[in-house]
Amino acid sequence: LLRDKFREFSRDTGGLGQERVDAANAAAAALISGGHPERAAVAQWQAGLNEAWAELLELVATRAQELAAAHDLQRFRRDARQVLEQLRAKARQVPEELGRDLRGAEGLERQHRAFEHDVQALSAQEGAVAAAWAELRGRCQRRRRLLGDSVEQFRFLRAARDLRLWMDGVQLQLQARERPR
Predict the structure, then answer these.
(1) Using one digit for the tens of pLDDT, what is the confidence trace for 88-114?
(2) What mean pLDDT comes out for the span 142-160?
(3) 3-class DSSP state for residue 38?
(4) Sorting pLDDT into bands at 50, 70 and 90, what band is 50?
(5) Was domain 1-146 assigned CATH 3.40.50.300?
(6) CB neighbour class for 94 (10 Å; exposed up to 12, middle 13-18, buried from 19)
(7) How far apart are CA 40 and CA 111, in angstroms?
(8) How far apart are CA 30 and CA 44, in angstroms?
(9) Residue range 156-178, pLDDT digits in tens
(10) pLDDT tens across 2-14, in order?
C-alpha cells in the first residue's frame, strides 16, 4: 500500500515538478539571453534550482528503493515465519510409538516416509528463504555503497557550487571597483 501510494506521489511530483522546472529554466534563459543586468545572479539561481531538482529526484528514487527493500524484508520475514511454523508442526507430528504389531509398524513406517517427504519439501522452502535472505543482504550492502557514493557526489557538487558562487562574487567585486584613468 505504501509503495503504491509513493509511486503515485512520485509520478505526480515528477510530472508537475518537471513542468515547473522547465518553465523556470525557460524564463531564466530568456532573461540571460535578453541581457538582463542581473543575468549572473539569474544564472546562479538557475543552477541552484536545477541542482535542487536533481537532489529531489535522487531523494524520490532513494525512497522508492527503500520501500522496495522494506517490502522484500517483510516478505522474507513472513516466508521465514511460515516455514518455521511448518517445521514446528511437523516436529509435533512425529509419533513416539514404534508400533505394537507388524501392521501398526508398517503403517507408522509409511507415515514416516510421507513425513520425510514433507520435511524435504520444507527443506527446499527453507533453502529458498535462505537464498532470499542472502540476496536481500547483498542488495542492502550494494545499496549502502551506492548511498555512500551518492553522499560523496552531492558533497562534491555542493562544494563546487559554493566555490563557483565565491568566484563569481570575487569577480563581481573586481568588476565593481573603479579602474584608474
Answers:
(1) 787 777 667 777 777 777 787 787 788
(2) 77
(3) coil
(4) very high
(5) no
(6) exposed
(7) 84
(8) 14
(9) 778 878 888 888 777 777 677 66
(10) 888 989 999 998 8
Q: Residue 67 is placed in which grid cell? A: 520501500
Please spell the DSSP secondary structure of 65-117, one letter per residue: HHHHHHHHHHHHHHHHHHHHHHHHHHHHH--S---SSHHHHHHHHHHHHHHHH
Give the start-to-end residue ranges of the domains of the chain: 1-146
Entry field: residues in the chain: 181
Nearest to 130 by CA among 85, 83, 93: 83
Contact 20, 5 (CB under 8 A): no
- Whose cell is 551506492? That residue is 146
**Reduced DSSP (H G I as helix, E B as strand, rest coil) percent helix, strand, coil of the chain, to 5:** 90, 0, 10
Q: Quick one: cell of 118?
A: 514433507
Residue 178 confidence (pLDDT): 60
How is residue 5 written as a grid cell?
501510494
